[in-house]
């Protein structure tokens, strides 16, 4: 029986207007971060986090090898920031990339306090990497169609998982062409229409070994 482990990540940012515009024209202070939920320490399975800022920033590639995984800066406009999370995994997948919307609040609006929750599902990870995921708060789940386990280990609680097909819209989802077994598969991402901050995103990455369920919410 295949082993599947789910673990959660939280991406978010805070932003607020400066009391006075700087000589560079900066209007906001902001901070972006990657972390685990309250009960999880992602340092167990995360090797490093790379934040790729806009090219207008000095040294736009910011690397955090230890927690807290965050970047604090000042600016005058929002932008889409690629965030790369590298895993302590000797086999694929070794990283995942998120495109994070670092938006700023307009004058007269309250400061931004935004949180985006990600659920990563690893199919059949190595024993070593599985232990790291469990230490970080990961949970073993029962894959769709798998036989029930009569005596689950008390250390690894078993939870049902929802198939990715339940999140897709057959009218709007494009067909993903998959290569033969053993070859690399193309990534697929579907974003329903509407405002980004209320979107539900489902992505497939890295040879069908990692799935990402994304939910955005404001806290």
Describe the fold and architecture.
This protein has 219 residues and is mainly beta. The chain has a single domain, classed as Immunoglobulin-like (Sandwich). Helix content is 4%, strand content 42%. It has one helix and 13 strands. Strands 1, 2, 5, 8, 9, 10, 11, 12 and 13 form a nine-stranded mixed beta sheet that branches. A four-stranded antiparallel beta sheet has the order 4-3-6-7, with no helix packed on it. A hairpin with an 8-residue loop joins β3 (46-52) and β4 (61-64). The longest helix has 9 residues, at 127-135. The protein is elongated and about 55 Å long. Residues 148-209 have low confidence and may be disordered. Keywords: Nucleus. This is Protein ENL. It holds the Pfam family YEATS. InterPro entries: YEAST_sf, YEATS_dom, YEATS_domain.
